[in-house]
Amino acid sequence: MPTSHTTPPAGSEPPDLNTVWLRVFLEVARHGSFTVAARTLGWTQSAVSRQISALESALGGGPLFDRLPRGVRLTEAGRTLVPHAEAVTASLRGAVRELADLRTAAGGRLRFGAFATADAALVPHALAAFRARRPRVRVSREEGLSPALLDRLTAGHLDLAVVSTTGRAPLDTYALHHLLDETLYVAVPADHPLAAAAGPVRLARLADADWIAGSTRPEGTLLDAAVRQGFRPRVAHVVAEWTAKQGYVAAGLGVTLVPALAASSLRPDVTLLPLHPEDAPPRGVYAATVRGRSLTMAAQAFIGSLREAAARIPG
User: Fold this and answer.
1) How many CB atoms lie within 10 A of CB 69?
2) Quick check: helix, strand or coil at residue 303?
3) Which of 94, 175, 197, 269 has the fewest CB atoms within 10 Å, i.e. the most exposed one?
4) What pLDDT shows up at residue 86?
């Protein structure tokens, strides 16, 4: 009686297949010969035959090749299997390549965020160097305030966040990679009485000035420094962008605090005065990551690029 082969019902669990079986199957299909496939693989012909028999058994027992006097020929089942076997082996080769890229930071992805001032000089220089070295890494960037970026980091939406100590964010719960300590300046119109001042300026001398800031409340902003010196600055204009703040200062509408990271694009009609370090101590700028969470090779490499860029920025 002919041997019957049971076909698994539709929707059943797929059989457990050894990827070596698929590799051997494709070699035999390619050459039409167990002998040539064995020679290509560096195996014996009997070893190749055992692998094909094991694959046929796992797939229900039907033959994948017709055994001919000279060589073999794919059956209908074998012809059906070929594209699937090719897809599986190609997918595995792709996975191996991508994993190798991850280990060397040559590929993969990088998701990071940065506060606005860091985007003025630090991040662009670091990102340009990073892209030149690792062009195949897929990069996505977000901009926001440090506390919001840390929330995104904790939730797993970012691999790292460039943050500062401004805003009283709970940095102690994160792994911090120090980039730089950033000094603060006060920007005044070029014809301001203090523009020719020698040495650092005390904030108290500007207690009666109109201020231009990103918020009406100084708490959690650079103007926290003024509150610590015993006065609440009078915020006359709320302006978010650094270039726009300079325009307001140049027009004589007030003064503003400028961190060193934003000082590289200074207008000629605005003067920057260094603040006394007792009034406004340098703020730390860090690349923050989640403590205990594995850091990707791309993220590690980008932290290196950030440190290189930070070393070129004046304090």
Assistant:
1) 4
2) helix
3) 94
4) 92
pLDDT along the chain (315 residues), means of 10: 45 74 93 93 93 91 90 93 92 79 68 92 94 91 92 95 77 90 91 86 91 86 84 91 91 92 85 88 91 89 96 76
Sign of the CA dihedral running 135, 139, 141, 146: negative
236 sits in which H/E element? strand 234-238
What span, in angstroms and rounded, lies between the C-alpha atoms of 129 and 308? 9
Count of C-beta atoms within a 10 Å radius of residue 162: 28
Burial class (CB in 10 A: 0-12, 13-18, 19+), 243: exposed
Cβ-contact 58, 17 below 8 angstroms: yes
Rounded Cα–Cα distance for residues 112 and 287 (Å): 9
pLDDT confidence of residue 4: 42
Residue with tokens 């009609």: 269
Type of residue numbered 90: A
The dihedrals phi and psi of 138, each to the nearest 5 degrees, come to: -85, 120
